[in-house]
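Handout, section B. The chain below has 128 residues.
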Amino acid sequence: MKKLFILLLSAIVIASVLLLSFAETPSVKKATVKDVIENATLLDKNDEEIILTGTISSQISKKKFWFEDNTGQIIIEVKNSLIPLVPSTNQIEVEIRGKVDCQANSGDGIKIDVKDLSFDQDEDIQLM
């Protein structure tokens, strides 16, 4: 009975380790604005994080900005805690990390919910 219990416990531990090691981890993809626009529905559905590199060209509202790279423009929505980090000039290249929000049916269109924003800290810039 004791050997059976140890064998069963060992099997449970091994199965747990295997499940955890093969569990899906969220993927992060480097993308362009064009990639995001063309694949927005799928990216939103899969809840994938993306990384975009480009510039913030203008502010639309308190939390929304136009982001652009050499392939196009898209609206980004920045978390309140990150707004002070948004450069006030579009001359600064930024890297944003976030998730695609595709609301085609509601008329809101496609936007990126920004979770992280970074740029070269050595540049002499003003923040918004």
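Note. Residues 26-119 form a domain with the OB fold (Dihydrolipoamide Acetyltransferase, E2P) fold (CATH 2.40.50.200). Compare this with the example in section A.
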